[in-house]
Amino acid sequence: MDEIADDTIRAKGSDTLKLRELAYESIIEKLISHDFMPGEFVTQRQLVQRTGQPLGAIREIIPRLESEGLLRTVPQRGIQIAHVDLNLIREAFQFRLFLEKEAVAIFARSASDQTLAMLRREHEEMLALALARPLTPAEEAAAQAIDWRLHDMFIDALGNSIVSMAYRVNSVKLRLIRSERYRIDGRVVPVMREHLSVIEAIESRDPARASEAVGAHIDNARRLALTV
């Protein structure tokens, strides 16, 4: 009987954990897709309505989201989505710079020739399309996906789950900054050109050159976010 009881407790605990993770992932997804806007105030009930997740799970993951700097509870006002200010911009880009400069140096040594050829091809194709005519919203969304995928590949190549988790949280903040301060819309040509410079540096298999190239690219994005 004790074994049955223990199994029941473990099953309930597993279900609770799954609900919490689903609630967390749902809010992250809404933040990335701009269903929640930077600085917006919401209630727990609104989080439930907009994510479709149970109230208990939402309540349990709020402290986690607060510790990650994605939400904050304001007395008498509710829950505020991370507000984009100069401090957030500086800290998010500094964190990104530290991680990506090291990650791309390793990527320059480990990435296969096939991977680099694929990256160059998709960037050159998108650049040619953007130079030829104005892009549709769907094409700009595809360009944004190419942008994010390149940077994610640098981090994923490390094979370090702790770094990947921390980078993912910071990426959510960066995407909030993009939605508030600047977007790739109308900037596909310079972004693709900067990425191609980074890819060229990686192709040289020189870690220092690759690190310098990605650092210059991130600095350009940071300056844009601070001046818009």
From TrEMBL:
Question: What species is this protein from?
Answer: Aureimonas flava
Keyword entries, A-Z: DNA-binding, Transcription, Transcription regulation
Give the top-rank taxon of the lineage listed in the UniProt record for this protein: Bacteria
For the keyword Cell membrane, the answer is no
Q: Identify the residues that the record assigns to the HTH gntR-type domain, covering every copy.
A: 17-84
PROSITE patterns in the record = HTH_GNTR (PS50949)
**Metal-binding: present as a keyword of the record?**
no
Mind telling me which PANTHER family this protein's record contains?
Answer: TRANSCRIPTIONAL REGULATOR, GNTR FAMILY, UXU OPERON TRANSCRIPTIONAL REGULATOR
Name listed for the protein in its UniProt record:
GntR family transcriptional regulator
InterPro entries, alphabetized: GntR_C, TF_FadR/GntR_C, Tscrpt_reg_HTH_GntR, WH-like_DNA-bd_sf, WH_DNA-bd_sf
Which GO molecular function, any one, fits this protein according to its record? DNA binding
Q: What Gene3D superfamilies does the database record attribute to this sequence?
A: GntR ligand-binding domain-like (1.20.120.530), Winged helix-like DNA-binding domain superfamily/Winged helix DNA-binding domain (1.10.10.10)
Q: One short Pfam family name for this protein?
A: FCD
